[in-house]
Amino acid sequence: MESTSEVPDDSCQVADEAEKEALALKNFKETIAEIEGHLAHKAQLRSRIHTTVQNRPEESYFTRLDSSIKKNTAFVRKLKNFTEAQKESILKDMNTLNLTKYISEVANAIVEAKLKMTDIASILQVCVVLHEKYADFSAQILEAWQKVLSMKKDEKVSNPSKMRVDVRFYADLISCGVLTPKEGLPLLGSFLTNLIHGDKEEHNSATIILAFCKFCGEDYAGLVSQKLLSDAERFKLTVPTSTWLPPDKRQNVRNLLREYYSSLCKHLTQDHKELQNFERQNRRILQTKGELSNERKERQEVLNQSFAKLLNMTQQFSDILAEELPELRQDLSPKDEECSVLELSENMSDQARETLNELLWENEEGRQFYENLPNLGVYLPNLVPKVTAETLPLPDPAEQMIDIEKEAKEIEEGEQAKEEGDEDIKPTELEDEKEDADVPVSLQSNKVLLDSFLTTLSACVNREMIDSAAIEFSTNLNTKHNRKKLVRTLFTVQRTRLDLLPFYSRLVATLHPYIPEVATDLCNFLRQDFKYHVRKKDQINIETKVKIVRFIGELTKFGMYPRADTLQCFKQLLLNFAHHYIEMTCHLLETCGRFLLHQPDSHQRTKVYLDQMMRKKSMLASDSRYLTMIENAYYQVVPVDSSTRISHIKIRPPLHQYIRHLLYVELGNKGSTNKILKQLRKLNWKDPEVATYAIRCLTSAWKVKFPNIRTLAGVVAELTLYQEFVGHRIVDAVLEDIRWSLEFPISKFNQRRVSMAKYLAELYNYRMVESSVVFKVLYTCITFAVSYDRTIESELDQPDNLMRLRLVLTILDTCGVFFSSGLAKKRLDCYLVYLQYYYLFKRSLSIWTEDNPFPVAIDFGIKDTLLSLRPKLKPYKTVQEAADAVENLEKELMNKLSQAMPELQMDMVLADDTLACIEEEDIEEGEEMREVDDDSINDEQSLSRSMSQMTTRGEATQPDDESANTEDDHCVVKAPRKALCPEDDDFMAALDRMVAENIHEAYSRGKEASKAPAVDIAIPWQVKASLKKPSDGSDKNFLGDSIGGELGGALAAAEASSACAAVASSPPSTTNDNPTVNFFLMTRKGNKPQFKNLALPSDSELAQNLRNREEAEKAEKERVKKLTLDFNERQEEEEFQDLYGGANRPAVHNVNRDRRGRFQHPKGVPDAELIFGGARKNR
């Protein structure tokens, strides 16, 4: 198959080559035929004149013609203004007029006529007719030519353009036979000899000799062009030559022309050397002073134009005379060994050129965008390019030593000089679009097409669309009026659409070779507008200024805006390096700074200006935003040493690279979450090295795209179900990283800090951390190393550093919506008070002024957060209002704490000199007291952490002295403060879950599990009815129906009696003298029980045991009730979080849950639950 497919390709190539060869042969034969026809026409004219002269008409013929002066003088005037269109009328007049007496005037009129090259054939025909009729015509016209062509040795030609036509005209008169060679050749030879010998140095008359060679060289010198000779040799054919002149005379003319060509080659070589020397001097001046004077710029333009003109004529002479062009040697002066790799010679190797491309462009796609432009000549074959690409000479770094101090002095002097002409600069004024009412109907459709084209131009946001727009404009809309409207549209692009500037610049560069007016006008507008904004020195319209400099930068990279002018803009911005000029400089460097630095002709100047910019930056007393912008722009332009870059490259094992690929590349792709989770589960988690590296990658949330942090947290949550230690280590690392970022507030890690705060909040959403941990981080952000004293400035929380507010807003925006019920809601309410105080305190600092306002993003962020979390909350407006709210909140919490702390302290008082044993009951009682007022204590714990850092309102908030002092004189030993650590929090969380599960199981067993023990005896109803009435006015009987329902007190068994049981009838009744407790003693006599009243002292052992038992049972019941309520509330909160966060979480599912689906009835089978009323119907 391969051989059969290759044969047609080879045959097609052979056919194409044969077709090209046949076409070239055809063209060559047509050229040969044209030359033969020209030579035959000349020979025919000579023979015709020779025969006609011998048979001229007699005098009787002329007597019949018109000899009036009026018509003859009119005929002479017509000859002086001869054109090709008048040939027929002149020939007609010649047949009716008798010009015998006016032949001298006719000859002079023909010689003085201002002819064109296209008029030569027609005037020759007129001269031939005159020569055939009038015998004196040749003598008269020769006399007229002698007056014109006679010149001395060093005489200059006054009118070279007319002389070019005259020389050809005179030479054709000789070759056609009007003038015989014996009469005409001496004059022509003397003229050419004097002209060539007198013009060997300046070559001002080169165009005259070139015209003679083109049109008459074939007849007088036998010249054949180099192309015809090569084609004749190629096709083995001969080029016909004229045999009119003898060979010796043709050789003399050829030698004379070659002599002139050799002098022209020497002149070209000298001009080339002079141009190189002048460019070298200009480069030296540019690199030492930074700019050129206007005189030197004009001088260089003149030299370039003259050299280009001379080179063009030399090339034409070389082709006509079939001579070789002189070799123009480039300047090969020795290069400095310390020069940059950028200053390469023109003949650089492919590897060096690739290195230069890597430095010039960030990637291959960028290079293709700026260098590979569509060729409009393919679509417009008849359109001739008006601009030819010019290769700029490379600088000579060996002769350039840059003095940076001198450059700085030059900039300072230039600033004062430029200020004098500020009033002359005006903003760019665009011509108003005139709605012409008298536009022809044929142009209305063109106007509609142009408006549609300009409207859709802003939608061209890729390379293909903008190239299509360029082709459309050049093919259908290329008129002068449309070009002006296009330039106006490009220049007035919206200041916020900076994304369109590269594509508009590509459009201008694509049109430039064929429509250079667009690029020229646009660059002039941008140059004038830039000067206006720089000289204006106002602090408004920053977006417009940024648009102007970025547009200039994009056009510079396409080569439309001269690099020298761009560097001049850079210098103008450095003159007043402050405020908006700093931003304009940074945007200009970000756009084309790298391009300018790595271009050989602008490398040194850019280097000087960059050093000067960094020097000004070190002396700049500005805010950190400008300093950061300058550093970012500088390090984006300055290349990094490749050796240093390679030395920092880490060589990772394949497994590590695969883990990074999964988490940093694949994460976030559609449907990749489950795949990543499966691959991570396959890792060898028992290997410490693999596990450590995987956990480190899972912790580095700042290396993941910001929207994918939620997905990363979901992967960690699912992975923890299989590897429990992973979750603990990741949470510890995240908390440690956040703490480290607060202790070392380095600005370059701001993005990392925000990512880690977001990661912590997402981990809470996936139940990897508790709400208490999140609140600890939130309080740490606004309390750690924060100084609320305006006279003391904290090093870790600078007045202009608002990064902590950004962290808090990130956390609350991510997980704050879940703090909507229970204890978390109360904690968030308290925290928002402290957050508003911290925010308002930061906002009220003196660093924020009108010139340096408080960031609007923080204001709106705080307002949006409060509105989303607490829509009904009224934000505080002043710092004092927030401070009062904080004080009131602290007093309220201290009151709750003072009520709970005495009992807590009493339980925790230690013995004097003995070690007390641990009592479970006491601990439980302490837990009960803690659970009774859990809300206030937890809030107070957060408050106690924040109180140590805050010095609000000038003094620290202290608890009331009354609550600390006691009425007694004895000293109360307070329990030591509990040290909080993450391990205790994890333990308490696990304990709470276990207790909740046990309580749930106990309550699910039914009422039987909670009934009173079997030892209790029910009180007979007779005694119970009698006990409801008080026995006397002093003693009261109570039944404890609330405990157990049937048990009114406590029953105690008598130790001595065999069948007696003591039934407690009431709580102790007290009197003023002897407090007693009434008991009923139940005995059995036969089958009937008997009851006897028994009064015991209240301090007896039986009464004391009864009281302790009642209190223990009551406390236990309250504790169980509190745990049950907390469990229900927690369950409701978890269900709300699942419902709210289910829609926003990634599709990460636990494969071990909900495996069994609901039974689906097959088609046609009736649903029994709907018919007979099953459980679903009852629901």
UniProtKB/TrEMBL annotation:
<dbReference type="Pfam" id="PF04050">
    <property type="entry name" value="Upf2"/>
</dbReference>
<feature type="compositionally biased region" description="Basic and acidic residues">
    <location>
        <begin position="411"/>
        <end position="429"/>
    </location>
</feature>
<dbReference type="GO" id="GO:0003723">
    <property type="term" value="F:RNA binding"/>
</dbReference>
<feature type="domain" description="MIF4G">
    <location>
        <begin position="657"/>
        <end position="872"/>
    </location>
</feature>
<keyword id="KW-0694">RNA-binding</keyword>
<dbReference type="GO" id="GO:0035145">
    <property type="term" value="C:exon-exon junction complex"/>
</dbReference>
<feature type="region of interest" description="Disordered">
    <location>
        <begin position="923"/>
        <end position="969"/>
    </location>
</feature>
<dbReference type="GO" id="GO:0048471">
    <property type="term" value="C:perinuclear region of cytoplasm"/>
</dbReference>
<dbReference type="InterPro" id="IPR007193">
    <property type="entry name" value="Upf2/Nmd2_C"/>
</dbReference>
<feature type="domain" description="MIF4G">
    <location>
        <begin position="451"/>
        <end position="640"/>
    </location>
</feature>
<dbReference type="GO" id="GO:0005829">
    <property type="term" value="C:cytosol"/>
</dbReference>
<protein>
    <recommendedName>
        <fullName>Regulator of nonsense transcripts 2</fullName>
    </recommendedName>
</protein>
<feature type="region of interest" description="Disordered">
    <location>
        <begin position="411"/>
        <end position="438"/>
    </location>
</feature>
<feature type="compositionally biased region" description="Acidic residues">
    <location>
        <begin position="923"/>
        <end position="938"/>
    </location>
</feature>
<dbReference type="Pfam" id="PF02854">
    <property type="entry name" value="MIF4G"/>
</dbReference>
<keyword id="KW-0677">Repeat</keyword>
<dbReference type="InterPro" id="IPR003890">
    <property type="entry name" value="MIF4G-like_typ-3"/>
</dbReference>
<keyword id="KW-0175">Coiled coil</keyword>
<feature type="compositionally biased region" description="Polar residues">
    <location>
        <begin position="939"/>
        <end position="955"/>
    </location>
</feature>
<dbReference type="InterPro" id="IPR039762">
    <property type="entry name" value="Nmd2/UPF2"/>
</dbReference>
<keyword id="KW-0866">Nonsense-mediated mRNA decay</keyword>
<dbReference type="GO" id="GO:0000184">
    <property type="term" value="P:nuclear-transcribed mRNA catabolic process, nonsense-mediated decay"/>
</dbReference>
<comment type="function">
    <text>Involved in nonsense-mediated decay (NMD) of mRNAs containing premature stop codons by associating with the nuclear exon junction complex (EJC). Recruited by UPF3B associated with the EJC core at the cytoplasmic side of the nuclear envelope and the subsequent formation of an UPF1-UPF2-UPF3 surveillance complex (including UPF1 bound to release factors at the stalled ribosome) is believed to activate NMD. In cooperation with UPF3B stimulates both ATPase and RNA helicase activities of UPF1. Binds spliced mRNA.</text>
</comment>
<keyword id="KW-0597">Phosphoprotein</keyword>
<dbReference type="InterPro" id="IPR016024">
    <property type="entry name" value="ARM-type_fold"/>
</dbReference>
<keyword id="KW-0963">Cytoplasm</keyword>
<feature type="domain" description="MIF4G">
    <location>
        <begin position="69"/>
        <end position="296"/>
    </location>
</feature>
